[in-house]
Design brief:
Length: about 425
């Protein structure tokens, strides 16, 4: 009989039973404490580390966001210089702001056919590091939201946001962060932080994980992580082989399309990237058949698969896409998409975010310096940073994507430094 939190007391007779109240407990005897794990949660972390092959794994119930914030803060001190991939998630840029870090941006290659960032080359990484030899940390996203992987060698500590790659082998980083819920059977908000080298001060890291996580972690989320790890321990080879087989059939079929183009370059094949003349039209066709895409904007549609897709689901998807392709009498030329203009940082984000500012229209902001963010969501990578000069090219890019922009002000309004 629970004479302890939470207040619903697992009284399912009083509740509607639609939510898993019976699993929602707290740090009672035998259930360990995430802030100082010594029992079942410590064992779960060790099992996760063994499964992925890391030196240590830490549970995050605040998603990859909380783990990224903790990892960056544990590996830096205020005013440090860090290399940051231009296509990193907002959580990385929020860490720069919170930790008062000085970013030097790494510019990935651009794929104009699909309108996505490609990998960061070793040459770009080495040249950027040479321009900022004082940098103490590099932060990259691999795989990206679209499944593109960056493989680089780094002479400084490397933190990899692999939120979209929990189903892939660990990349070569010192800290790697996984969102289990994105591609594996786990509840939303579940993640792991992997320590993969001896360069990490574990006490600092554990302290920062406590800073950026709730002191009342959800046991429903932690139970979900436990179930996911157990499933992979028992059936990973079988489940992943069947997943790969379904993808092989799908890619073979897509080779016959005439109006759709499937991204076939080396990347995470579980992310189905389809370029077409009108992404909204394709998305509407999918939704009419009760298939909901992950993303549709401009000329790109993204469909995410996982080991939980059934053979019937993949057959239905193939049938609907074939039908859309067949309705196009000939191939419609797909236009090259514009790369986001390179960011000209006139101030560091942590400085600009706190500076006096005013709100004006984007067309009146040419030559001014932004005080806030604007980002495309998904994937959640900013296209405008605090401290970035607003150029005419940038204003044109923002206008082209205005309907998909998120920010502190509704576009076309922007905040600029006074």
């Amino acid at each position: 009989m629970p004479f302890h939190m939470p207040g619903h007391k697992r009284n399912t007779a009083m509740l509607d039973g639609a939510l898993p109240f019976a699993l929602d407990i707290t740090e009672i005897d035998g259930f360990d404490n995430l802030q100082n794990p010594t029992g079942i949660l410590r064992d779960l972390s060790r099992r996760a580390a063994d499964l992925w092959g890391s030196r240590a794994a830490y549970i995050s119930v605040n998603g990859s966001t909380g783990a990224i914030l903790a990892g960056i803060r544990a590996m830096t001190k205020p005013n440090d210089t860090v290399l940051v991939a231009r296509n990193c998630h907002m959580s990385v840029f929020h860490a720069l702001e919170l930790c008062f870090l000085r970013p030097v941006l790494l510019e990935p290659e651009w794929n104009g056919d699909f309108g996505i960032y490609d990998a960061i080359t070793q040459e770009t990484f080495d040249a950027t590091l040479a321009s900022a030899p004082q940098a103490v940390l590099a932060i990259v996203t691999s795989p990206t939201y679209e499944g593109v992987e960056t493989r680089i060698r780094s002479n400084i500590p490397l933190l990899i946001d692999a939120a979209h790659g929990a189903h892939l082998p660990l990349p070569n980083g010192d800290i790697v962060v996984h969102s289990l819920h994105k591609t594996l059977p786990a509840l939303t908000q579940t993640a792991l932080l992997h320590v993969c080298s001896n360069k990490i001060d574990m006490r600092k890291l554990e302290h920062q994980l406590r800073v950026f996580q709730t002191s009342s972690p959800s046991y429903i989320l932690m139970a979900s992580i436990d179930r996911c790890v157990a499933l992979l321990e028992q059936r990973k080879q079988e489940l992943f082989a069947a997943w790969a087989s379904r993808l092989d059939v799908f890619y073979a079929n897509a080779a016959h399309w005439t109006s759709l183009r499937l991204f076939a370059a080396p990347h995470d094949r579980s992310k189905l990237l389809i370029a077409c003349a009108d992404a909204n039209a394709l998305a509407a066709h999918l939704r009419a058949a009760a298939l909901e895409p992950e993303y549709a904007h401009g000329q790109l549609v993204l469909l995410m698969t996982s080991p939980c897709d059934t053979l019937d689901m993949m057959r239905k998807l193939t049938e609907v896409l074939n039908d859309f392709d067949a309705k196009k009498s000939s191939f419609v030329k797909i236009k090259k998409t514009q790369k986001p203009p390179a960011a000209l940082l006139r101030q560091f984000p942590a400085e600009a975010i706190h500076a006096p500012h005013e709100t004006i229209l984007i067309n009146d902001a040419i030559g001014r310096v932004s005080a806030k963010y604007a980002w495309l969501y998904p994937p959640g990578a900013p296209v405008l940073l605090p401290g970035q000069e607003i150029t005419s090219d940038l204003a044109a890019f923002l206008h082209n994507h205005g309907a998909a922009l998120h920010g502190d002000r509704p576009f076309p309004q922007v905040d600029v430094l006074c």
